[in-house]
Fold this sequence. Notes:
There is one protein chain. By secondary structure, the protein is of the alpha/beta class. Helices cover 45% and strands 12% of the residues. A six-stranded parallel beta sheet has the order 3-2-1-4-5-6, with helices on both faces. Helix 1 runs antiparallel to helix 4 (81-94), helix 2 crosses helix 3 and helix 3 runs antiparallel to helix 4. The longest helix has 19 residues, at 38-56. It is elongated, with a radius of gyration of 19 Å. The chain starts with a strand and ends in a 12-residue tail after the last strand. 29% of the residues are buried.
Amino acid sequence: MTPKIIAFDADDTLWHNEPYFDEAQERxxxxxQDYASHQEILGLILNHQVNNLPxxxxxxxxxxxxxxxxxxxxxxxxxxxKGIEQILAIGKDLLxxxxxxxxxxxxxxxxxQGKYKLVVATKGDLKDQHRKLxxxxxxxYFHHIEVMSDKTELDYEKMLNRLDCKAGDFxxxxxxxxxxxxxxxNIGGHAIHIPYHTTWEYEKIDFEIEHKNFKSVTQIxxxxxxxx
Length: 228
């Protein structure tokens, strides 16, 4: 493939992210272990997150609000101010987590810089994603940063219009088949999937992808031989 623009997802593609959310949910489950089972609590959080996506979008702040709504449901709206404060503390801790790059990210970006226009295309809180990119030390490799409200076909088309790039000249690299691969393939772009060891339930799909513009690799260094 010979793309003009290569876009990278951020969370769990450039740096670790989902384990922090898993840890936060574990803390929440401990707080409310007397109200429901571990699995029931996780299911309630997920339901609130998915139901709130049209209103709150993605990111830590939306996740925190969904935890508060879950706590209200679990306690029949009897949660104390102290309980709300403990949930807010979980959210604030997430917003201050260190940025830990995945292996070989810097080395790969070093080889791609100058040959392709590199872009970050990610979901989440605008301020938080810019913080993480700044703290990561790799911001200088990217021509453009796009924090998207969602990753639908329309969202990608709008981004490509802003970048003055045709879909056939675009390559998306990410860990989510649902968000980073399928919409891009559907608009005529190219996509490479790099699985992460844990995936948010909302981002999972239950079918195999077969497409001439799709590749799957196990680590970031394997994308280099695929590019011309």
